[in-house]
Each structure stands twice: as structure tokens, then as C-alpha cells.
Amino acid sequence: QQQLGPNLTFYDLYPPTTDLLAEVQQSLSRETPSLHPKFFYDEAGSSLFDAITRTPEYYPTRTEVALLQRYAGDIHDRLGQPHTIAEPGAGGCEKVRLLLDAWAPEHYMPLEISRECLLGASRKLAQDFPAVQISAVCADYCQAFTMPQSLSQPGRVVFFPGSTIGNFEPRERLAFLQGLHGLAGPGGALLIGADLQKDPARLDAAYNDSAGHTAAFNLNALTHLNDSLGCQFDISGFRHLAFYNADHERIEMHLECLQDQQVAVGDRVISLPAGTRIHTENSYKFTVEGFSALLTRAGFQPAGCWVDDDNLFSLHLALV
Ligand code: AVI
């Protein structure tokens, strides 16, 4: 535990490292080759994601921000005054600023695996919100960790915006929400964003923006593997593919091989014949009813849902 300023404390829980090379070798050698979406997010990938959120086609970010701006007061009325807001995977801690402004909680607890990103964002936040105590926790929120004693007081409002929940597979999704239920603790709550099912053409456009940022973001996963794990993908030999799969109620992103390739991945060479698709991401889309039922299954009591006028995106409040 390190005091970094009058209102900023840093807790390093040393997230365990995993053997990424072995993971990539395995997932690329399966009958349907895949890569985990976490490989999108190196520095270049995070900037590309920012660029995506500003394209006219990618509606989720701006719609969710507008919902937070419009309904922060209503949500507060439903919830009462929160003491602590906890945000797993807080990244740049941008959206929570709206809640800190509107709710003025005593305490904010971002949890983030990237130490650099966490420290940068929480330093700025501590300056901008001197009345909020910030406990910055470096941890992998997808794996179990023990909360430091001084932070163990339950009754937190867990904030999980962005429809990141849509990037989990159904099996992991429920377990993850149960984990958030534990993080909130008795007397706590969850405020979570979930993207909604809609006209597939609108969804397809959001993941095929005309400026090409989503394509660059998808292809960057391979550049990231080349840079960080010494893989030898020829990026020009792949193309971005994204489409709505109505049966599975999800956008799928793939990287399609344009010609036969032999790619060195660590001590292995992986054969990818022309036409092979590496499945890089699923982004599930929900209905309001389906998502509320999911929250109930995870142990929460749904307590409110706010949707924009065009039915694009939903914000759910659920109590522990
Ligand atoms: C982070 N996540 C919610 C985004 C999504 O829409 O599923 C990631 C993304 N992939 C392509 N565009 C944006």
C-alpha cells in the first residue's frame, strides 16, 4: 500500500502473469483458430479503440455517455447515496467522472490490470476530484484476488460500463457477474451497460466503420503478437471481417487469411491455409428482459433500466 497523494492510495496486488505464448499456440492450433480479445489492447490498440468510439457508426459509447448524463440523478434516487464506487477494468477512468460529479461519493476504487494505465488515470482523477478518496488497485479482475483488509468494507456500487460484458462467452459471463456480486458485497449494487439487439445493418456498420479504425484495431492484434511474443504474422496477408450472427445474437470479428501462410509462433509453425478465419471477438447483444433475467440468475435484484429513445443501449441497475 503506497500513499501517492493526499487523496490517492495505490494497492499493488501483483496480478499473476500467464504463459501467453502457450495460450496463443493452443488457440491458433484448434480446428477453429481463435485469439482472445485481450490481445487487441496494447497501446496502439487502445488508441484505435478510442478512435472507434468517435466514429459516426459506433454508437455504443456516445449513447451510454448520454444515458449517464441524462439519468445519473434518477439512478441516484433509486440507489441512495453510495459510499464507494468500484470499477473493474477502469482503464482511463473517463465515464466514472460523470458519476463522481453527479453523486459525489466519498470513495472511488478503480481496479485495472495495467499498472501504467491505472496510475496515469488515477493521478489525473485525484487532482480533478480532491474531495474523493481514490484507492487504485492493480489486479486482474477476471481472476480471484483477495481484497486488502483496509478496503474490505462491502456495500460498493460496482460500475461496469461499455457493454464489455458482451465480450464474455455465455458460460464465463454468468460466473463473471457472480464475481461482481461478490465484489459489490451485502448492501451493494451493480450499474452495468449492455448493448441491445437491433437492425443487423446498424450493427454491421458499427463494426465496419468507413474510416477503417475497426479493421485496423482487429489487425493490430497480430501486430501486438509480433511485437510482444516475437510471432511472425504477415499482416498484409489478412483482412478484417465483422458481421452479425443472428443465431448467436452476437457480432463476430475474424481475421481472414488471404493466402496460405506458415506463421512462426514461438517454437511452433502454424499453418493457416487461404480462407482460414481466426476468430478474434464476439460482442453479444442483449434484450432488456434477457439481461435482467441474467442479472437475477447471477444473484442480483434488478432495480431499474434506462434505455435511449432509439433503443440502442441499456443501463441496468441491480441490487445485491
Ligand atoms: C470493448 N467492447 C465492448 C467493444 C465491443 O463493441 O464489443 C470492442 C470492440 N470491438 C470492435 N469494436 C469495438
Automatic annotation (TrEMBL):
<dbReference type="GO" id="GO:0008168">
    <property type="term" value="F:methyltransferase activity"/>
</dbReference>
<dbReference type="InterPro" id="IPR017804">
    <property type="entry name" value="MeTrfase_EgtD-like"/>
</dbReference>
<dbReference type="GO" id="GO:0032259">
    <property type="term" value="P:methylation"/>
</dbReference>
<keyword id="KW-0489">Methyltransferase</keyword>
<dbReference type="InterPro" id="IPR051128">
    <property type="entry name" value="EgtD_Methyltrsf_superfamily"/>
</dbReference>
<feature type="domain" description="Histidine-specific methyltransferase SAM-dependent">
    <location>
        <begin position="22"/>
        <end position="318"/>
    </location>
</feature>
<dbReference type="Pfam" id="PF10017">
    <property type="entry name" value="Methyltransf_33"/>
</dbReference>
<dbReference type="InterPro" id="IPR019257">
    <property type="entry name" value="MeTrfase_dom"/>
</dbReference>
<protein>
    <recommendedName>
        <fullName>Histidine-specific methyltransferase SAM-dependent domain-containing protein</fullName>
    </recommendedName>
</protein>
<dbReference type="InterPro" id="IPR029063">
    <property type="entry name" value="SAM-dependent_MTases_sf"/>
</dbReference>
<dbReference type="InterPro" id="IPR035094">
    <property type="entry name" value="EgtD"/>
</dbReference>
<keyword id="KW-0808">Transferase</keyword>
